[in-house]
Amino acid sequence: MPEPLMKPLDDIRVLSVTVFLAGPFLSMTLARFGAEVIKVEMPGTGDPVRSSGPFHGPKGISKDRQTEDDLSIRFLKRSEGVKSVTLNLKDPEGRRMFLELAKQSDVLIENLSPGSMIKLGLGYDDVAAVNPGIVYCSIAGYGQTGPYKDLPAHDHQIQAMSGIMDMNGAGDGPPTRIGVFVGDLVTPLYCAYSILGALRHKEKTGEGQYLDASMIDTLATLMFMEPMEHILADGLPVRAGNDARDNATGLYRLLDGDVIITVSTPARLNTLFSALKAPDTLDDPRFRTSELRLENITALRATIQKHLSSYTCTEAISLLEAVGVPIARVRTLREAVDDPHFRDRETLKPMYRQDSTKPIEPGIVPGFPIRFSSGNLPKLEGGAKLGHHNEEVFKTLLDLDSDTLANLKDRGVI
Fold it and tell me: With helix as H, strand as E and coil as C, how does 36-59 read?
């Protein structure tokens, strides 16, 4: 008997005018929950990420495109479960067809430069005129309003402008970019549950609405979950590398590697030093209060390091886990990728193309990190070739026949 599937959005259609990462990640996130997501791309070129290597094709993996059938690995990672159609939105007929699709959609998402959809005659007001219930979500680096809205921005610039780079990196080193595209990836998650909230609002009131998402605002909300205003006021170091700013939590070097230990409370510190057979450490006049420990944080860390230096990672982990002190060995990326935990929970999965049942080796796509007791999320098809779903979508939703589609293709509309 097949396992039950969790598809709460299987009655939702999403029209996606998205490029690069933030918009496509939002598209894929909604598709994971069963939504029909139709990505509209420019004929001939499509999403710019399609031209970014490495590529997979009949000749295997290569840095440059070898054949017409080659697809970008980056595109495949960002396009699971998403249908691809081509429409020239600058053409009046392409615009008309887009609005016909929008009439039959519940959600429209876009992450073009602010104002681009308005210039095309496809902004929120244009779409709402034909579909008042549409939930229309725009993602931009700085949002659709404010002094920076017209500045070009990718994740690198947003991390720089947000101040998050100033928080990241070694205390005596330069500002450091976070190693994943945090603005591009967290903003779509905010958007996903905002869209769900807007759809619920629509159920209650019948009203559609416009959602204006800003990547820089996303990073600001993440940064100030910490009391950064007090850290700035107290003159504490903003950039603390692998250590906490105001306690002895941090990275410690052992005989055969590094560990991260969390000791953010006096109780945890007492437990740590008792386990390390140095129970009287906090009786040291330098460490008796939180204020004194902060004033002497370098000495406190050095004391912890001295007691840990004779242990291997395995020994220290066994010792401290037994008494409830959080500790973990710092693993390499290769070690993490090879951990069966991620395969068992389908957090990391084989990569596929839409046109093949054979997995791409050594391709990996991210799964979803939440497990549902009512059933599994649906298995998504791999990323599609440009315009692969033209016939299916345009025939089904716009009632166009093959001759009409051929004519539209010849004219450069699709």
Answer: EEEEEECCCCCCHHHHCCCEEECC
Q: In this structure, are residues 233 and 242 in contact, taking their beta carbons and an 8 Å threshold?
A: no
Distance separating alpha carbons of residues 219 and 209, to the nearest angstrom: 24
With tokens 């779903």, the residue in question is: 389
Q: Could you give the CA distance from residue 178 to residue 367 in angstroms, rounded to a whole number?
A: 22
CA-atom Rg of the chain in angstroms: 26
Residue 130 contacts residue 102 (beta carbons within 8 Å): yes
Give just the sign of the alpha carbon dihedral 407, 65, 338, 181: negative
pLDDT tens for 32-61 read 999 999 999 999 999 999 999 999 999 999
For residues 301 and 115, give the distance between their C-alpha atoms in angstroms, rounded to a whole number: 52
234 is catalytic: no
Which residues, listed in sequence order, are joined to residue 260 by a DSSP beta bridge? 251, 328
The token pair at 389 is 């779903």
Q: How confident is the model at residue 1 (pLDDT cuts 50, 70, 90)?
A: low
The closest of 185, 191, 179 to 22, measured between CA atoms, is: 185
Residue-wise pLDDT for 95-122, tens only, equals 999 999 999 999 999 999 999 999 999 9
Catalytic, out of 47, 106, 155, 184: 184
Axis-axis angle for helices 266-275, 313-321 (nearest 10): 120
Residue 82 CA to its chain's centroid (Å): 16
- Separation of alpha carbons 252 and 383, rounded Å: 43
- DSSP per-residue string spanning 89-106: TTSHHHHHHHHHHHHT-S
- In the block, tokens 């931009």 appear at 140
Confidence of residue 360 (pLDDT cuts 50, 70, 90): very high
Q: Name the DSSP class of 359.
A: P
Indicate the pTM of the whole model: 0.94
